[in-house]
UniProtKB/TrEMBL annotation:
Its main location: membrane. The chain crosses the membrane at residues 29-47, 54-70, 90-112, 119-139, 187-204, 216-235, 247-268, 280-301, 313-333, 345-365, 555-573, 585-606, 618-637, 643-661. This is Solute carrier family 9 member C2 (putative). Keywords: Ion transport, Membrane, Sodium, Sodium transport, Transmembrane, Transmembrane helix, Transport. The keyword Coiled coil does not apply. Residues 832-908 form the Cyclic nucleotide-binding domain. It is found in: Membrane. Pfam families: cNMP_binding, Na_H_Exchanger. It comes from Monodelphis domestica (Gray short-tailed opossum).
């Protein structure tokens, strides 16, 4: 059989030779070939279980077989014709952007940001060493006479590390994310430099506009990489990121499958009989050379990596050497070696064969070496501290499962279930590492190792909390990005726990912005009209006063200055100036004359105070320089040959620029407004950041026990997180005090968003159940989304409410007019300066302080929670000092006033503070008038607050707020005296929380101290302190049973029958009547009491 080109009139592939052939395809079935390749790739992916080296190797062999068939059969030749006639530049623009984008998308932007210079040096070193070393070997040891140009292009192509295949073996075996991103980043840089090099060579070879075309090509690569780096989980809607990522993975794999198959087809279509045995030996030489070049590269950059990354070691160096895997990025450039070479060689298919052989060999051999090295060197083994943390988490999950099974056994509908099988199937066993007794004692981690591992877990939990808050709508996207970025940045710093001061450079930004604003305000101060009054005696002076201090006079000066702008340009332009000398001199005379008139009118009114204003002094200096300029011009015209006068005239001509400085005064108000808007946005962003940071610490504090079971580690972590939380709360209070209007606007906007979000969630629930029609649901969904979108135009500032309106914010008043009216008459406004002490620890309470503005710090030596001192001593409970910060809307002294006991903390003003004060006598007078209803509501609010701040274990996911409990009516308070017993966890109780005092498990004699959750395995408890308060959370649709008294049943608002509800309303009216009687005794006017009673009713 003759050669392929001679026997069949099929064109030589443009991917290799670039020759033109006249044969065309009459039946374009190329799309069938593409679909068939996708089908074969998918089948291989299923059969070989995602082992990509074998899949891509078989696809290249599959393409080679198709190419051989194309040499034999005309039908296959026509099928392959579109592929062989397409220029490689087309495939480069089709496949390269998606693969580059996917490689960049998988890389962590913040790791790249921290190690950019190290990764850049590694990538450039890899490119240079491959360019020199591999190029030298190819020139010296290749039997075929390749020119230097082809050898260098070949060395660049084969020296690229594939950013997709190089990290693919490391993804699922637990290797450090930093190591993976170093490999991926170095690969992206070497690929980017190589593509730019080929692009420049392609452009200069075609003799086109090099700068225009290459900058467009370079910008395309940079844009794709930048877009991939900047996109993260926050860039997509919640729930869509996984779908989009999977789709991109499928498309990327399809691109790689097409590239390997196409290269196999092109090689199969060529004549391979002329390839000798030397080619096989040269492939082995190339493989050794590529790995040696990789080793040389890592040896050169290892000092930089050792100095900059504390995790880098010789083990990482071995991994970097083995990770020099070639793949699709090499193959996509291989055809351009021949296309861009000026001297054509005899066997161009050798370029493709060598590159494909290197790709297959490195994918198979180096991938196995990378995986084996990671396992052997212990880089993919879970460390013992992390293993302990995972075991703690598994034990916690198993405890939750056991509690669920225990509760499910009590349901009547599930009594006939074989619970032994359920317990057996739901049992979780985590395989532990094999360690001998001696080895365990020697290798047990120290506290330093455990605290470092716990620090990494804390960073991960915080980042998860930030993403959750963003998805819930409680944290803006900008704030979430800053917080996640800061967590990743400081997560790489050994021993560093991120604090609020590490999150942002807020202090510096705020300081220079305020300084700029103060400077602009100083420059824009206008005291002329305030300090001067129109003369009463002289009508002429009064007329001048009206002219000088009118806005028309001021803006006339601005207009004259702006009109002089064009003559000034002509004066500075020598060519135009020489032809308009006389006109420019006359315009200069007129301008100075108008400035003199303006200054004269002001001096007549202001006299010597004219020079007190800085802008007036600037105008006066402008006139002086203008007069000197006129004199110099006149002298130059008299003595045109005097060099000194000419130089002075030129210098004074440039001084005319100061005439335009007064325009700056006109734009000062606009600049001040812009600076104020920037400050407000910065304060709003910082407030959101601080709020999100505090919430992440709250989420983390209640997961510490799952991180580490060692008590010393737990205590140290708790202290660090508590200290960071106090600093963040303090910073939050300072921000709120500095700009109350911005914070109130932000809180209002967030409240609107939360309400609309819940309404939208309920709408979608009703829509999914068919209660709302599809068309109506779509319209209402658009309505809610439009309202949420309109919040983008919400004002940056909202005026703060008056002190009277703050009473509506007290949750236990429940916005009832009769209660608010009562306390409005009793409340007093109290003002404190910075450093003032509101109350001292150990003093009797004077009353409640509702903070209106400002911030107060609370410091107590002990949070006792009503636990008997003897029981505290016997149980060896820690005496932890208490520090807290309260801001606007918080209340000081609730618990002490309820108990009529000494204050448990000292309240100190951190800023100037305003508070609404309700005395203890007035509070208990309200208790008497409204009976115990009011006292019970305050106790319920205090109990819910304690549960939210101190109890999270076992109730994670419960939305436990006062308003939520009122809406769902699923929480109530039980009072248990000493030695009294109570049955808990019946069919209606979901959680039983001890919020004050202590109780005893009657069955096991186990003590439970406040604040904590009583386990669901406990069914009978006994009070052991003088006062014991239990917060009981009920199951949904459960009715309350077993109340201790009829009075408590009355106080359970929302679950009465109609008669008890009416009785409550009668009680409120009686309270209103008592309030009116009180007003009658104060004002001695029955009309006042009658009007008040009618208004309240």
């Amino acid at each position: 059989m003759n050669d392929f080109e001679e026997n069949i009139s099929m064109p030589n592939p443009d991917l290799i030779c670039g020759r033109i052939d006249e044969v065309t395809s009459s039946e374009p079935h190329f799309m069938l070939l593409l679909f068939f390749i996708i089908f074969v790739a998918g089948m291989l992916k299923v059969v070989l279980r995602n082992y990509e080296p074998a899949i891509l190797t078989l696809l290249s062999l599959f393409g080679f077989c198709i190419g051989l068939l194309g040499r034999q059969f005309n039908e296959v030749q026509q099928l392959l014709y579109p592929l062989l006639k397409t220029n490689n530049y087309v495939f480069l623009n089709i496949f390269l952007p998606l693969m580059t984008f996917m490689a960049a998308l998988e890389m962590d932007f913040y790791i790249l940001k921290n190690m950019f210079w190290q990764i850049l040096i590694t990538g450039l070193t890899s490119f240079v060493t491959a360019f020199v070393f591999i190029g030298y070997i190819v020139v010296k040891l290749n039997k075929y006479t390749w020119n230097v140009q082809s050898c260098l292009l070949f060395s660049i192509t084969i020296g690229i590390t594939d950013p997709l295949q190089s990290v693919h073996p490391l993804k699922g075996i637990g290797v450090s994310k930093i190591l993976i991103d170093i490999i991926r980043g170095e690969s992206l840089i070497s690929c980017g430099v190589s593509f730019v090099f080929f692009g420049i060579y392609r452009i200069f070879g075609r003799k086109t506009s090099a700068f225009k075309a290459e900058f467009l090509g370079l910008s395309g690569i940079i844009s794709v990489i930048s877009l991939g780096l900047l996109l993260d989980s926050l860039s997509f809607r919640p729930g869509t990121d996984i779908t989009i990522t999977k789709f991109l993975f499928i498309m990327t794999f399809s691109c790689q499958a097409f590239i390997f198959t196409f290269m196999g087809i092109v090689i199969g279509c060529e004549n391979i009989r002329e390839i000798e045995f030397h080619s096989l030996s040269f492939i082995i030489i190339l493989f050794v050379t590529v790995n040696a070049t990789r080793m040389l590269t890592i040896l050169l950059v290892s000092p930089v990596l050792l100095h900059s990354c504390y995790e880098f070691s010789w083990r990482w160096g071995i991994m970097l050497i083995c990770a020099g895997i070639k793949g699709s990025f090499n193959l996509i450039l291989a055809p351009d070696i021949y296309n861009l070479s000026q001297e054509k060689i005899v066997l161009p298919q050798l370029f493709l064969i060598y590159v494909l052989a290197m790709s297959i060999m490195t994918m198979i051999i180096n991938s196995a070496m990378v995986t084996h090295s990671a396992v052997t060197l212990g880089l993919c083994v879970i460390s013992l501290p992390r293993h302990m943390a995972m075991q703690n988490a598994i034990l916690h999950i198993q405890e939750v499962i056991n509690n669920t099974i225990m509760l499910s056994k009590t349901e009547n509908i599930l009594t006939n279930i074989l619970w032994s099988i359920v317990e057996e199937k739901t049992k979780i066993e985590y395989p532990s590492f094999f360690l001998g007794n001696d080895e365990k004692s020697d290798t047990f981690p120290t506290d330093e190792v455990l605290i470092e591992e716990a620090r990494l877990h804390v960073a991960i939990i915080q980042m998860s909390s930030f993403e959750t808050q963003y998805k819930d709508g409680s944290l803006p996207e900008a704030a979430a990005r800053i917080l996640i970025g800061a967590s990743k940045n400081y997560g790489t710093v050994q021993g560093k726990f991120m604090s609020i001061y590490d999150v942002t450079t807020y202090e510096k930004t705020r300081s220079w912005l305020i300084k700029v604003k103060n400077m602009l305000v100083f420059l824009s101060s206008q005291k002329d009209k305030i300090n001067f009054f129109p003369p009463e005696k002289s009508k002429f002076m009064g007329f001048i006063y009206k002219i000088v201090f009118s806005e028309e006079f001021q803006y006339t000066g601005y207009i004259v200055t702006l009109l002089y702008f064009f003559p000034m340009i002509m004066h500075l332009w020598p060519t135009v100036r020489d032809s308009h000398v006389r006109g420019l001199i006359i315009v200069n005379y007129y301008f100075v004359f108008l400035c003199i008139i303006e200054a004269t009118l002001k001096i007549l009114i202001m006299r010597n105070r004219y020079f007190y204003e800085s802008w007036n002094r600037l105008e006066f200096y402008t006139i002086i320089f203008g007069l000197i300029d006129i004199i110099c011009i006149h002298l130059v015209r008299e003595k045109p040959r005097d060099i000194v006068l000419i130089q002075c005239s030129v210098i004074l001509g440039f001084f005319r620029i100061i005439r335009f400085f007064r325009i700056f005064k006109m734009v000062l108000p606009t600049l001040i407004n812009i600076i104020e808007e920037i400050i407000k946005k910065r304060l709003s962003l910082m407030y959101s950041i601080t709020k999100g940071y505090i919430q992440s610490l709250e989420d983390t504090k209640f997961l510490i026990k799952q991180i580490s079971s060692r008590e010393s580690i737990f205590q140290k972590l708790y202290e660090i997180l508590e200290m960071n939380r106090r600093d963040a709360v303090k910073e939050l209070g300072l921000i709120e005090h500095e700009c109350r209007e911005v914070v109130i606007a932000l809180k209002t906007k967030q409240a609107i968003r939360n309400v609309l979000g819940k309404a939208l969630k309920n709408l979608r629930f009703l829509w999914s159940r068919g209660i709302i029609d599809k068309i109506e649901g779509i319209n209402m969904n658009k309505l809610f989304l439009g309202k949420i979108k309109s919040l983008n135009n919400f004002p940056m500032t909202v005026p703060p409410p008056t002190p009277e309106k703050f009473l509506h914010n007290i949750v236990w008043l429940e916005d009832k007019d009769v209660l608010i009216e009562f306390f409005k008459e009793k409340a007093q406004l109290a003002c404190f300066d910075y450093g003032d002490i509101i109350c001292k620890e150990g003093d009797m309470p004077q009353g409640l302080y509702l903070i209106i503005s400002g911030m107060s710090s609370l410091y107590g030596s002990l949070l006792h929670f009503g636990i008997d001192p003897k029981l505290r001593t016997l149980a060896h409970l820690p005496r932890t000092p208490y520090t807290e910060y309260l801001t606007s809307g918080d209340i000081i002294g609730e618990l002490s006033c309820l108990l009529k006991r000494e204050m448990g903390y000292t309240a100190t003003c951190e800023t100037i503070l305003q508070a609404c004060f309700i005395s203890l006598e007035d509070l208990y007078e309200g208790f008497d008038i409204f009976w115990s209803f009011l006292e019970y509501k305050i106790w319920l609010k205090v109990a819910i607050s304690i549960a939210n701040h101190h109890i999270k274990e076992g109730i994670m996911g419960e939305e436990l707020t006062y308003q939520r409990c009122l809406e769902k009516n699923n929480a109530y308070l039980e009072n248990l005296s000493r030695y009294s017993e109570l049955t808990i966890y019946n069919d209606t109780m979901l959680h039983v929380l001890i919020v004050y005092g202590s109780v005893l498990n009657v069955a096991t004699d186990e003590q439970h101290f406040a604040p904590s959750r009583i386990p669901s395995t406990c069914f009978q408890i006994q009070g052991t302190s003088n006062i014991n308060k239990l917060l009981i959370i009920q199951k949904e649709n459960a009715t309350r049973k077993g109340k201790s008294s009829d009075k408590e049943e009355y106080y359970d608002s929302g679950k009465f029958d109609e008669s008890s509800q009416s009785f409550k309303e009668i009680n409120l009216l009686l309270g209103a009547f008592c309030l009116c009687l009180l007003q009658t005794t104060l004002f001695n006017d029955p009309k006042v009491s009658l009007k008040s009673f009618l208004r309240i009713c």
